[in-house]
Amino acid sequence: MIIIIILGVFIAIGVFIYNSLIEKRNHVTNAYSAIDVMLKKRFDLIPNLVEVVKQYTNYEQSTLTKIVELRAKAGSGSLTDAEKASLDTELSTAVKGLMVTVENYPDLKANTNFLNLQSTWTESEEQIAAARRTYNASVTSYNNAIMMFPGNMFAGMLNYAKIDVLETPEEERKNISAKELFNN
User: Could you say which DSSP state residue 167 is in?
Assistant: First the structure.
């Protein structure tokens, strides 16, 4: 009878650990999906931003073309997670350049449509940052679960592998010089 009770306890612990690992993996998937939703929102804003800027200035065509191309690439739906992260970085850099150039056009900066679009853009970027933080927290929790005992035994049997957290590229970690921005 004692052997059956001990076996039952081990089975219950095994089921608990297994379910916990599944739950953590699903949290990671859900958190990454939230990032995708926020990036889609950003990509939907880009044509509006470009159109408003076009109406007010003969902006450098190559930058607008690059932003439109990156948006089209993002909408293709055939990108891996790593490619999406790389594309996100490229797009962020291109749009930051667009926003800096906008500073040279006082009429555009005062336009209500542009101000609303800029506000929506800022909100979208904040949501993306929050979604990235949530994703990284979920990944950390998942990685801890599959690396710590006894979860690591089950993770090995289930072929669960460590997932990398999203990292900020080195170029975005550098200090921004306002002096250089205004001298361009």
Answer: -
pLDDT tens per residue across span 1-53: 999 999 999 999 999 999 999 999 999 999 998 888 888 887 777 777 767 66
Kindly give, in sequence order, each residue whose CB lies less than 8 Å from that of residue 176, ignoring residues fewer than 6 positions away. none
Specify whether the CB–CB gap between 150 and 12 falls below 8 A. Answer: no
Cα R_g (the chain), whole angstroms: 23
Q: How far is CA 76 from CA 34, 39, 48, 98, 175, in A?
A: 18, 13, 19, 23, 33
**pTM of model > 0.70:** no
Question: What do you get for the CA distance between the two ends of the chain, in Å?
Answer: 81
Separation of alpha carbons 81 and 88, rounded Å: 10
Residue among 83, 53, 46 nearest 67 (CA) = 46
Q: Comparing C-alpha atoms, which of 100, 103, 48 is closest to residue 71?
A: 48
**Confidence check: pLDDT of 181 > 80:** no
Rounded distance between C-alpha atoms, residue 175 and residue 48, angstroms: 29
Question: How far apart are alpha carbons 130 and 125 in whole angstroms?
Answer: 9
Q: Which residue's entry shows tokens 């957290």?
A: 165
Q: How far apart are CA 144 and CA 155, in angstroms?
A: 11
Q: What is the C-alpha separation between 184 and 175, in angstroms, rounded?
A: 17
- Structure-token pair, residue 108: 């555009």
